[in-house]
Write a structure and sequence with these properties.
This protein is mainly α and 437 residues long. It has helices spanning 17-23, 43-59, 61-66, 71-79, 99-106, 142-147, 157-170, 174-189, 208-219, 225-228, 232-243, 298-307, 321-330, 336-357, 366-369, 392-406, 416-421, 425-435, and strands spanning 4-6, 10-12, 107-112, 122-126, 136-138, 253-254, 257-258.
Length: 437
């Protein structure tokens, strides 16, 4: 869960990049430019396209005004898909957690973003009174509102901003850290972890200061923090061994990665039942697996990520603009059909292969691990969608269809003929050697 931090509160968190740097005793990477950027292919067209993008973004008042922080109340109250107390529930109607409360009580800068960004969805917030006074940083986006708020039973903007500011200062991923804190919170609720196990911390839902103490212990690997610092999945395996009790059902993760703060049980959010289970980025909510006739799903997201631009700026744009931009910048005439049929699928299969090959201590078996957390098969206990859950039979049908659509065999492994078509024969050789495929 260690992030690579840039500027003040920018974090590359998903995937544990900070942990990789730390394992190599690498403290920082500094880049200093000494000359101009490379020339683009058609500078006049790039200028025109930038103007077009900016005009559309300026018209998107709602997103510029509040960013994803508007979702902290809406996702829970409207779609019943927000983690509440480690996903025990996904609905809440806590109006005091609405974006207007953050705005009027805590915001100190409305439009704050990177140079040249026309959306500037970031806001700056600070706790101005009370025991948490002085915490300052990004107004939490939706993911941090959820994982460092509702997921921990915290429904006050002050508590949420305090924890988000602390997590940034500690250099942790807000999603991964919030997920493991929620996991620990439920183990304490159920008496599996005790106050003694937690070095004297009474880890009660809603207590921002208690969760802050545990977060600090995780950052310096003190006491139980040394176990929790391994992330939710590894921590669950170690605590299971320590306590002699299966605790994996309380670990809401996918292939070692915490889920994004969007549940699938209500069916009202943007993910389907296979979104996390079949994603080549495991629990990442920004690259979900799904069937999308028009947007091509994760294949389009791969273009945004490979182009290294924020796709929040693309929400209101015409569909062909990104392809015009691609050619104007690079000179490469890459059409949508070629991207979706070949280039993006190479990325998809490479990511899948790397995921299946695993790491130094974990391996993923698609027949077992391409699945939702067990909690998602339990019915929602509250809210307008109470009783809804993921249907196992439907999930299996969708997973089978998805495997076929992307060129994987019945066991979820890329087919040799598909890898050959994409020029990835070496990947096929490695998979066969490592997995006995």
């Amino acid at each position: 869960m260690a992030a690579v931090m840039a500027k003040w509160t920018h974090a590359a968190g998903y995937g544990g990049y900070g942990a990789v740097m730390g394992s190599k005793n690498l403290k920082a990477v500094v880049a200093k430019g000494t000359g101009p950027l490379p020339e683009v292919e058609d500078v006049e067209k790039v200028k025109r396209l930038i103007d077009e993008v900016c005009e559309k973004c300026y018209d998107s008042d709602l997103f510029r005004m509040w960013g994803t922080g508007a979702a902290g109340y809406e996702v829970g109250a409207r779609t019943s898909s927000e983690p509440v107390r480690n996903w025990q529930e996904e609905w809440h109607d806590q109006r005091g957690f609405g974006v207007d409360s953050f705005e009027h009580r805590l915001w100190i800068k409305r439009f704050w973003g990177d140079f040249g960004c026309p959306t500037t969805c970031l806001k700056m917030a600070m706790t101005k009174a009370g025991p948490l006074k002085g915490a300052i940083g990004d107004n939490p986006d939706y993911e941090l509102q959820a994982y460092l708020g509702t997921n921990l039973g915290i429904f006050t903007p002050e508590g949420n901003v305090y924890l988000s500011s602390l997590i940034d200062d500690l250099g942790l991923c807000g999603i991964q850290a919030g997920n493991v804190l929620g996991f620990a919170g439920e183990l304490y609720q159920r008496g599996i972890l005790t106050k003694q196990d937690l070095d004297g911390i009474e880890l009660k839902w809603g207590d921002a200061q208690a969760f802050a103490k545990l977060a600090k212990n995780i950052a310096v690997r003190r006491g139980i923090g040394d176990i929790l610092a391994e992330g939710t999945h590894r921590a669950a395996l170690k605590i299971q061994e320590m306590k002699g009790k299966d605790v994996t059902e309380y670990a809401i993760q996918e292939k070692g990665v915490a889920l994004g703060a969007h549940g699938v049980r209500s069916g009202e959010d943007y993910l389907t039942e296979i979104g996390y289970a079949c994603s080549v980025q495991a629990g990442d909510h920004t690259s979900i697996a799904h069937f999308a006739r028009r947007s091509k799903g994760e294949l389009d997201i791969m273009l945004h990520d490979s182009g290294v631009y924020c796709w929040f700026n693309m929400f209101a744009q015409r569909r062909d603009l990104k392809w015009e931009f691609f050619k104007a910048v690079t000179g490469w005439d890459v059409r949508p059909r070629r991207w979706h049929k070949t280039t993006a699928r190479r990325i998809l299969h490479l990511q899948r292969a790397l995921l299946l090959l695993g790491g130094p201590d974990l391996r993923w078996n698609p027949t077992e691990h391409d699945d939702n957390p067990s909690r998602f098969y339990e019915p929602l206990p509250s809210g307008p969608y109470a009783g809804k859950s993921v249907n196992r039979a439907k999930f299996r049908r969708l997973k089978k269809r998805y495997y076929e659509a992307v060129g994987w065999d019945e066991n979820g492994i890329p087919k040799p003929e598909e890898l050959e078509r994409l020029g990835l024969q070496e990947v096929d050789r490695i998979l066969k050697a490592k997995m006995g495929k």
